[in-house]
Design brief:
Distance between the termini: 17 Å
InterPro entries: P-loop_NTPase, Small_GTP-bd, Small_GTPase
GO molecular function: GDP binding; GTP binding; GTPase activity
CATH superfamily: P-loop containing nucleotide triphosphate hydrolases
Number of helices: 10
Order of helices and strands: EHEEHEHHEHEHEHHEHH
Biased composition (Polar residues): 254-263
Keywords: Membrane, Nucleotide-binding, Transmembrane, Transmembrane helix
Region (Disordered): 191-263
Number of domains: 1
């Protein structure tokens, strides 16, 4: 995809403990593929998908999936910087993953702007019989930090689409209401050259600024159990997914056995550095 095929590019980060379903969530959103077997992320990876609003505004959502392992903490902090939105994960059948949310929230507070859009997502909703974390616990935590809360099954692609695309709409609304400046990198937004020129032109005309603000049409087919931020009178408008693209992933194989893992530790470190260097290049290019 041509990087100028969008008006806006938004950086989203997916964070949470290892094994909570971040990579599966990402695969479903970008490719429509449900990952059956658990394969932990080594370091980080990212994918991109473009969506088009009825108004003709095209947004490229760039989603960064970071490893939940503590050994990659420095990477996690680095790539949580300059994010437009964060999706924080735990799974309802694992109490420890819920307890870890305080740590992930603290990381966001340290490195993100005060305008970051945040969602807490509880996965494994389809494993109700194994539940260890009650719905009200997750909702209460989300309310305490001003975040939205969802319980989902990663097999439900429609609900995943709604979560990500609604975050995009909310970021667009912050731009249109001048609550964030898309020219400043800390807000996790990049504009195309044409959009930058249009935005700069609008800023020079202070008198007509309010009249010239772009209005964005929200998403159709929202599940009834999800509460959104957009105006009620526009709920029936549509958003059209468009031009889903994925960035290359570095294949990684999990080492079996402690002895083999220790023997190949140096080689693993080298292999981890390759996707990180690659990702850094894209990170500075886009943001």
């Amino acid at each position: 995809m041509n990087f100028e095929d969008y008006q806006y590019l938004f950086k989203f980060v997916l964070i949470g403990d290892t094994g909570v379903g971040k990579s599966c969530f990402l695969s479903q959103y970008v490719k429509g593929i449900f990952i059956q077997e658990y394969d932990p992320t080594i370091g980080l990876e990212f994918e991109s998908k473009s969506i088009e609003f009825n108004d003709g505004i095209v947004v490229q959502n760039q989603l960064w999936d970071t490893s939940g392992s503590s050994q990659f903490m420095a990477i996690q902090k680095t790539f949580c910087q300059n994010a437009a939105a964060a999706i924080i994960f735990y799974k309802i059948d694992n109490q420890d993953s819920f307890k870890s949310l305080d740590n992930w929230i603290n990381i966001l507070k340290q490195v993100s702007s005060d305008k970051i859009q945040t969602v807490i997502v509880a996965t494994h909703k389809d494993l109700e019989e194994k539940r260890q974390v009650e719905t009200e616990q997750g909702r209460k935590l989300a309310d305490s930090i001003g975040a939205k809360f969802f319980e989902i099954s990663n097999q439900d692609k429609d609900q995943i689409d709604v979560i990500v695309n609604t975050l995009s709409f909310n970021v667009l609304r912050l731009i249109s209401s001048s609550k964030i400046n898309p020219l400043k990198s800390q807000y996790g937004v990049k504009m195309s050259r044409q959009q930058e020129q249009q935005y700069a032109s609008q800023q020079t005309d202070k008198t007509d600024n309010n009249n010239n603000q772009q209005q964005f049409t929200p998403i159709k087919n929202n599940p009834d159990n999800i509460e959104f931020e957009f105006p009620k009178e526009t709920e029936e408008d549509t958003i059209t997914p468009n031009k889903a693209t994925g960035s290359p992933k570095e294949p990684q194989q999990k080492e079996n056995g402690t002895n083999q893992q220790n023997k190949n530790q140096s080689r693993n470190v080298f292999m981890v550095l390759i996707p990180i260097i690659f990702a850094y290049g894209f990170y500075f290019l886009f943001i």
